[in-house]
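Recall the central idea of this unit: under ordinary conditions, the amino acid sequence of a chain determines the structure it adopts. In this exercise we apply that idea directly, starting from the sequence alone.
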Amino acid sequence: MATYNTNNPLGSADPRDLLDNSQIADHFVSDPENESWPDRFGNARKTWKGIEADAAAKLDQIADNASSQLAAENDSFQQFLLNSGYEPLADYVDGPITFERRNQITAYNGEFYRPKASVTLPYTTTGNTATTWATDESNFVAVGDAVLRQDLASTSGYKIVGGFYSQEGDPTTSPDSGNNLDGRRGARGQFDVISAPWEPKGVAGITFGGDNGRGTFTIDERGMVRTSVWYKGLRMQSNVLLPVLQSLGFKSGPDSLEGVMLRMGNPDSSPTIFVDYDASGLPVLGLMNAQQFGEYGYPNPSDEGYSYNLYWTRKQVQSAINTAISGYQQYFTYPLPSNDTTSHVWVPVAKFTTATGTGNANGVFKALITVAGNVFPNGRSYLISGNSRGLSSVSLTSSNVNSYFNITALDAPASDDANNVNYILSMGVVQSANTVTLYAKMPYSCAYSTIKALNVGFSGYVAYTPSAFTSVSTEPSGIIYLTTIKPYNSSNVTVSSDGTLMAASPIVRVATDTNTSDRADINSGGFNWSGSGAVNTEAFEYSVTHSSTGTYLIPGAKLATEGWQFKSPKSPTGGDDLAVVEVSDTDSGVQVLVYERTMQISGSSVSIVKGDLMDVPSDSWVDVRLYETPVTY
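Accordingly, the structure predicted from this sequence is:
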């Protein structure tokens, strides 16, 4: 503010006003801080600093407006370039490449790309490898189809799709002039066909390929596809017919079934293979003469050539099949005589000659027998084998018969059918002079039984005629039964914690839990975790509880009444027991108590006694064998 502020009118010569004016002028020119200063009448006036600040702001505004306008004009120009077509640059792999306009494109892996609208131009790619493309790709947009549309829209774009031929469909054009059907097909792309009288009939077609090689498809009025090929302007092949699978056009047999035919050429001049049905509804294979098609491309079933060839082909096929399988029928699967009763029958399966001179394999016999019925709906399988070599001077007895003949129960259960022998297959032999007959003693209720020979020796030493099987209801005199071999498997044998094989039934492996057991094999070989232990298939209904240290229970279970009942935990490498175990039946189930091993010294003797309760060691388990309810039939 001025010093006096007299408010005298303008032009005042009052010394006070002159002093105020000098102060105001000094602020106008020299003030470095204030952009305005009040005049002698109190009105704010711009100082020189204020005028400069306003001028700078105005210049910045003008520059910003100019930049925005230039950017908009550049975007508009780049869009104009995009709408005007694309300018190819070098392929990406030949880069780095610099893009100055948005209509410039590069190719990579068979696709064209241009810079995105958000990319600032000019833009230079970071490299020319797959690694650099992973970085550059986000700055590009694919325009492959746009390039194709641009090429198709060009004056030579028609060549991409085969061009156009102006004389298409002219039936008066002479084939000598090169403008016949094949010539027209080779000259253009998709087309309708109007054939001249001397040309193959056609409905529609298409040509594809390039300048040096072209191929065509033509569909004729009967649906046959014909192909033709040109290479470097020369017709290499024409009117090649493709095989067609087609309905016969009529129904046959009692169920009105519809056959099919395979046409492999012109049906007017080439034979046709077909499958029809006879009066019984059975499929038959036929060969049809040419010129047996009506107006719509279907054969006439009443034609003489049709029925004659049908009969001839059936006989030929039957003869060919019989010839092909001759000598192999004995290796087919054959049914054994049914025995859906509660009494046994005996079936003579094979007869062996024991004359001197039998070679190592001349008298061999091996077969697979499967018996099934209401008791065993899934069936049980047995491997039967025998060899008459060396029997010419041997009298068979129950002591030596298994050295020559065997029966192996391939899928017998762990506890077999000791109390139900009437429901298992038995095999026996009867020796008479120089022959041995092998019998199958069929079990009760085996309505569905089969035999499949795997190896049959020389016919002079082994007689096997499955198509003529018979059965007898009385036990053959002098029969000697074979001992059934049972292979060890996971259903009848278990492995203890130290790897020892033991007879199996329902088995429970008691451990602490899945988190503390270090034995990966505890749930292998048919065992699965069930509570604090693992159970096999026969014990799937049971689980193990762990109520406190060293105390386990298998609820609802009972210990086996025969054979071994439990095995103490051992190291997987063998050695002594790792704990003292007590296992007993209780009202709640089978209780398992595990104690520490404690040495007790009495005089000069040392004994192992139970100490404090402990959990099952993490590198072992306790094997517990449970009671198995006998199988009843």
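Confidence is low (pLDDT under 50) at residues 164-178.
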